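Tutorial handout. Part one gives the primary structure; part two gives the three-dimensional structure as tokens.
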Amino acid sequence: MTTTEHQFTPFIPSEQALSQSELPDLAVSLARADAKLAGHLAEATQDAIRRHMAVINSYYSNLIEGNRTLPHEIRVAQRGDYADDQAKRDLQLESVAHIHAQNWIEEQSPNQDRLYSPGFLKDMHREFYSQLPEHLREIKDTDGKVKARVAPGEWRRGEVKIGRHIPPPAGDLPALMRHFCVAYHPSRFTGDKKLIAVMCAHHRLVWIHPFVDGNGRIARLFTDRGLYCLGLDGAGAWCLSRGLARTVDTYKNLLARADFNRQGTYDGRGLLSEKNLLDFCEYMLKTAIDQIHYIDELLKLETMQKRIASYIRARNDERVPGISGKLRDVAALVLYHAFINGELEKSMAHELCGMPERSARRLLSQLKNEGLLTETSAKSPLRWAIPEHAEPWYFPELVPGVV
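Part two.
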């Protein structure tokens, strides 16, 4: 029997179900929290955080899939220094490929029409898997025998079973993915339903399981960009995958429960459970809000000023791994002003140093050499940056290991 879009109804919960749930209020809260975060960050500072978060997002999205390559191991691999151990090297390659796919999506800057198209979903998958060697595209059974190979950017050609769930037949995927993109295009929804639809689409994409492998990662990349396309300008400065990874058992359990068929006459009118879809969306919205609040709290001006000062003290007490040499206390003032303004003219930076010209130049050169400030040219303004050695002080608990 041919699988149609009716098989993954309801697309979103009914009006009646939504009116009796927290979802509309959560969607409004999510939009407000994101706007608040984006509103108090200078554009250049927000760009620096987004670039830094690309590695963090890759770490947590891959962690959900069992890849425990830590951010510092990913950054080393980005510089071309891979582990000698083949298993660790493979995991690094996978993480770097994920970051490549993220950066490619950012460069493409797809609008809603392009994002919600089968071709772009295929392209996202292609950008990820085309970066991996042949042996990492092999799907093996429990005995280690190759049972399938991933074709980058192609729908799967065989049948699969994921736990208790049997996704639609491969032959139905081209039509089904066209229907998926139409069903969840934001133009079909108004107000808070747009955000709710993004979270529903996350599950339905995983339910369809259009690719042999990589469906979870692609769904998370798709969701991240979908939120940004809806005007959540802070998306990228906060990391949804971090929240999902920190509650991974709940995430996977609710994904699986949303696969269930309708549970009786009081469970909506679609073929799949409306109640379980509501529960999944509630979890996703609350997780997103929690991650925004986490980053927003860290980036409050007074809070960040204290964290920068704490980093300087740690440097001078020789408590910062991977870097040596003390910093003058006034460096905290320079870094803080770079953070709040996004860009800092060099003349202003010299004034903030409050020391002779030569000494000020020496301090600013040290901050640039250590990655705490960046510049695009000798005459460009200085920009706040997040080097790896400062991350545990600037963003405690962002990744495993607390200062």
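Part three, for discussion. The radius of gyration is 23 Å. The domain at 301-394 is CATH 1.10.10 (Arc Repressor Mutant, subunit A).
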